[in-house]
Amino acid sequence: MSDKLKINILKKLGRITLNVNQSLPSKGITVIFGPSGSGKTSILKLLSGFMRPDSGIIQMNELWYDSKNKVNVPAYKRPIGYMFQDGRLFPHLNVLQNLEFAKKRAPKAMPLDEIISIFELESLLSEYPSVLSGGETRRVALARTVLSAPEILFLDEPLIGLDRARKRSIIPFIENLVKKFDIPCIYVTHDIEEVCRLADHVMLLSSGRVKDFGSLDEILPQLDVATLDTDTKLSSLFSGMIISQDKEFSMINVDIGGAIIKVPGVSRRYSGKKIFIRINADDISIALVPPKKISIQNCIEAMIVGISVDVQSPYALVKARFSDLEITARITRAGVKSLKLTEGKTIYMLIKSVSFDSHL
Amino acid sequence: MVEFGPLILTLKLSLVVTVLLLFIGTPLAWWLSCTRSKLKSFIEALTALPLVLPPTVLGFYLLILFNPTSPIGSFWINITGESLSFSFFGIVLASVIYSLPFMVQPLQSAFENVGFEIREAAASLRASPLDVFIKIVAPLSKRGFLTASILTFAHTLGEFGIILMVGGNIPGRTKVMSIAIYEHVETLDYNQAHILSGMLLVFSFCVLFLIYTFNRRHPLNVG
User: Fold this and answer.
1) CB pairs < 8 Å spanning A and B
2) Residue B2 CB neighbours (<10 A)
3) What is the pLDDT of residues B21-30, one digit of tens each?
4) Contacts of A85 in chain B (CB under 8 A)
5) Cβ distance B157 to B200 under 8 Å?
């Protein structure tokens, strides 16, 4: 349908300089992930024409920006859809009028009734934005963006400020719309759960530079490093496969790199489906022998590959390897000393809790 | 006997000036609220000048400009056959200049209050700048339009110095309320001065009262 989005831009932003040279895929969701202040939102603003690069080229099918040839297509002429953090609905128009505003100006007719039903907006049509809840506002804003028939969708932290439950209720809408309308999507977030749920590709951004780019599977092992910079909890991420379900105790058995992890919960997905597992570093305890008579269900045998100690803090990070995978635990420095932990030592990692982020 | 001539002339002048300024002030205020041009401060200062200049200074320069021997004055005589100074159109022109800040400043702040965020959202839905103005910014600034129009109208209603300088005191053409009152006081006809002053006072109060009531009953953004 559409071509790749080619970006090669330079833009000075206060203390950092945004320097991005990357082609983004024309299918699926590409997540731009990085800590606050790394320039994520600025990339979207530059792509959409709300901000002007110092130099470079932006191209998708047609040239949108070219500093050498003095091309700068204004925002309203670029075939983009932009959903802002706060929704930015027009306060003097009700929900239906907000949607119609987008539909009237779209280059091709979009099915208004169908989109209203996809986003479950039937009961909100005559309401004004000031009375909508945060979740409702996001749904209307998403629907409005889709109704403008964009060739590419920019979502700028669309779920920020919502609680977990509400986030989880909106994520399926985003998954559905990308699939149903086949619009490529660039999604900015610093929430690891959204990355795991939604990303097909990930661009890791740090201080204005692309640290890495690739499919979610390729980038996943690095994500725990990236999260060190953010307020997200330090955790290790794994892609795993459901191998069986224990319906009686509502547990799912997941294979990650040969080790079996028991995850509480019931999955609607069949055995053999891929899911993402996240283990917080604080939820891991370390033992030197496999403990018996203990309520903890998950115990992984691993070999220590690194210990980082910060004398300013009571904690130490213990990085250990099992199969081909690495997992990080945070325990006290006192614990490291009393167990005489050193590199190369075999340990048993007791995992108190596991959360899983499913991805279709 | 109450003379209605000055009253009607004053209302006519205020109305014409307000309508003209809506057409002149709106694009100017819109430009000022959007531009990043270096000219902005220059134009803003120029627009605000009537706020600080004594009407006699402005009136003096306008009188010179309107003189039949000046380019503008002679041009006006050529196309209309009438002199610009001491004419109704002359005081309209003078009032438009003198009341400009009362139209432009409230409009500019109303447009700025709409915020670039909403404008960006509209642009991302493919609305051109003019479309954004007509469909989004103008409706969201309706209170600003109302305030600016009322201020302009009321300010023109009470104008004195500049009209005296440019228009003189010609019944039916330039003799507005404030000048008629001045004349009555000069000739010690306090009765007439009382009647006209009272009318202006009550009328001005009623207009302002209506505006504040309207603003309270129709708070913005609730739809």
Assistant:
1) 69
2) 9
3) 999 999 999 9
4) none
5) yes
